[in-house]
Amino acid sequence: MLTATSSATATLSSRFDSPVGELVALGDGSTLVGLYFGDSAQLAEGLNAHADDEAFSVTRLWLDTYFAGGRPQAEPSIELRGTPFQVAVWEQLRHIPHGTTCTYQDVATAIGRPSAVRAVAGAIGRNPISIIVPCHRVIGSDGSLTGYGGGLDRKQRLLEVEQRLSTAPA
């Protein structure tokens, strides 16, 4: 389930070790509202959230499957919190196929705002649910890796995880 809102705060958190560093999940027990890198400045919202690993068991399974090179089937319930424009951008990111990339221009065009490339880039930079809402799949128009809140080295590693699955023999 995907919803857009700007109210309520995350009350629960869980920390995960991953091949790209520590990840911190935030939510209310039934929905995931944030998945941040442990060193992210955006994580401030969840610093006072109560630790509860069980509340994020579906998120953990999703991440374990993803980092093992699989395509996760069970997806956590997600609530995207932002402006209507941001939510439209983040929802579009979810349509980028696993193992592929697209440009910021592609995203802007897909949401019906082809001249809003900079605004799209800004919204992508504020994506609250990294990896699951795959902003790492968006690249520059020249094919270069650009602008990733988790750092370009992480973006490259996430794309490599997906590329290994895409090129693996059947």
Task: Note down, in words, how this protein is organized.
It is a single chain. The protein has 170 residues and is α/β, with parallel strands linked by helices. The chain is 31% helix and 18% strand. It has 5 helices and 8 strands; from the N terminus they run E-E-E-E-E-H-E-H-E-H-H-E-H. The strands form 3 sheets. A 4-stranded mixed beta sheet has the order 4-3-2-5, with no helix packed on it. The protein has a two-stranded parallel ribbon with strand order 1-6. Helix 3 crosses helix 4 (117-125). The longest helix has 16 residues, at 152-167. It is globular and about 40 Å long. The N and C termini lie far apart (31 Å). Residues 1-8 have low confidence and may be disordered.
The share of residues in helices is 25-40%
Termini separation comes to 31 Å
Q: Give the integer mean of the pLDDT values.
A: 87
Shape: globular
Individual helix count:
5
- Tell me the total number of β-strands: 8
Supply Rg. Answer: 15 Å
Structural class: alpha/beta
Order of strands in the sheet with most strands: 4-3-2-5
State the assembly state of the protein chains: single chain
- What fraction of residues sit in β-strands? 15-25%
- Which stretches are low in confidence, meaning pLDDT under 50 for 5 or more residues running? 1-8
Order of helices and strands: EEEEEHEHEHHEH
Largest sheet: 4 strands, mixed
Name some characteristics of this structure.
170 residues; alpha/beta; 4-stranded mixed sheet; two-stranded parallel ribbon; 5 helices; 8 strands; disordered N terminus
